[in-house]
Amino acid sequence: MTNEHSQIITPEDVAREYGIPVATQRVWKCHNRHGWADLTIKVGRSTRYNRADIEAWLQARKGV
Questions:
Q1: Amino acid 31: pLDDT
Q2: DSSP character for 18?
Q3: pLDDT in tens for each of the 64 residues of the chain?
Q4: Hey, what's the torsion of the CAs at 10, 54, 44, 4, to 10 degrees?
Q5: In whole angstroms, how far apart are CA 12 and each of 34, 57, 64?
Q6: 28 to each of 3, 9, 11, 42, how far by Cα in Å?
Q7: Where does the chain have alpha helices with state H?
Q8: Which of 59, 57, 58, 52 lies closest to 9 in space, CA to CA?
Q9: Closest to 3 in 3D by CA, of 38, 52, 39
Q10: Phi, psi (deg, nearest 5) at residue 8
Q11: Do 32 and 38 contact (CB within 8 A), yes or no?
Q12: What pLDDT is stored for residue 4 in this prediction?
């Protein structure tokens, strides 16, 4: 059994579940806007994210 908050998710999952388009994620990662590059996990040539990191990032951005 996996804990939902420790799941590794794809950029497409982030786009579908959190509404941040894949193209926007790429720009943010490239320029490290909003600390986005710090959230990425590289798996070979692929980018992945930890769901808990994305949710914590969103919570921190609520007050901005």
A1: 96
A2: H
A3: 455 556 999 999 999 999 999 999 999 999 999 999 999 999 999 999 999 999 999 999 887 6
A4: -60
A5: 19, 17, 25
A6: 27, 17, 12, 15
A7: 11-18, 22-31, 51-61
A8: 52
A9: 52
A10: -95, 125
A11: yes
A12: 54
- Sequence length of the chain is 64
pLDDT for res 62: 86
Contact 36, 28 (CB under 8 A): yes
- In the prediction, which pLDDT does 64 show? 67
Residue type, 24: T
User: Structure tokens of 38?
Assistant: 């710090």
